[in-house]
């Protein structure tokens, strides 16, 4: 009886990729609830980031994977339409936050969320008489995490995540005056950076003998 080694390898890869799928669909669902607009590239890049954090080097985020991922999860690239009814889940979440505010106080309930910043990208449209061409789309990006409390009295220093540990353009600029800077391989938030952020904040809160309630996006918890 012959042992199918290729089948075993494929099965192991499938099990690994399942973990990527689970994280990615959880993130897509959380973004969908927020009303975020996602395209194929954003979903693929997020899946690659999950693979990187899970140390799954075989994952390439190919078009074939994306097609199958969307089919498995009932996802399609759809046209955006007008207003829709608010899901019950959102209403329940709002009630939860109201309860936490009454328990902790508005100054002690925080929300943190991450976004990508394509800092070199120019607008895709322009007011002009003729079609302009020759503009290269620059996709250089960093990630930014913003955090504040409900009443807006404590806007935490933004967390900026780039590719390089010591970017050249910081050489004559004191970036620490404006942001907390960190870096990762894809300029994405990861568990190491997020845990460092939380640990430093926790030390500050302990000195103040203070407890808070922090609401974070699903992607921050699973990265």
TrEMBL record:
Keywords: DNA-binding
InterPro entries: CenT-Element_Derived, DDE_SF_endonuclease_dom, Homeodomain-like_sf, HTH_CenpB_DNA-bd_dom
Record bears the keyword Oxidoreductase: no
Keyword Protein biosynthesis: no
Gene3D superfamilies xref list: Homeodomain-like
Pfam entry (one): DDE_1
Cellular component terms per the entry's GO annotation: nucleus
Stretches assigned to the HTH CENPB-type domain: 8-79
One example GO MF annotation: DNA binding
Annotated SMART domains: CENPB (SM00674)
Lineage top rank: taxon: Eukaryota
Name of the protein this chain belongs to: Tigger transposable element-derived protein 4-like
Source species of the chain: Octopus sinensis (East Asian common octopus)
Gene name in the database record: LOC115228081
């Amino acid at each position: 009886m012959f042992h199918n080694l290729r089948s075993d390898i494929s099965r192991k890869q499938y099990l690994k990729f399942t973990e990527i799928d689970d994280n990615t669909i959880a993130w897509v669902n959380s973004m969908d609830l927020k009303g975020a607009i996602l395209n194929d590239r954003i979903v693929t890049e997020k899946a690659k980031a999950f693979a990187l954090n899970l140390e799954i080097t075989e994952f390439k985020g190919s078009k074939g994977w994306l097609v199958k991922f969307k089919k498995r999860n009932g996802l399609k690239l759809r046209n955006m339409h007008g207003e829709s009814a608010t899901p019950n889940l959102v209403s329940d979440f709002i009630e939860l936050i109201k309860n936490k505010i009454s328990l902790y106080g508005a100054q002690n309930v925080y929300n943190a969320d991450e976004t990508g910043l394509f800092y070199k990208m120019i607008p895709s449209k322009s007011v002009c008489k003729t079609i302009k061409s020759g503009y290269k789309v620059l996709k250089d990006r960093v990630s930014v995490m913003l955090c504040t409390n409900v009443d807006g009295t404590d806007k935490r220093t933004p967390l900026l995540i780039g590719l390089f540990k010591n970017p050249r353009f910081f050489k004559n600029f004191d970036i620490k005056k404006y942001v907390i800077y960190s870096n990762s391989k894809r300029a994405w938030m990861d568990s190491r950076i997020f845990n460092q952020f939380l640990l430093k904040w926790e030390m500050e809160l302990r000195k103040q003998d203070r407890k808070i309630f922090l609401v974070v996006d699903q992607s921050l918890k699973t990265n």
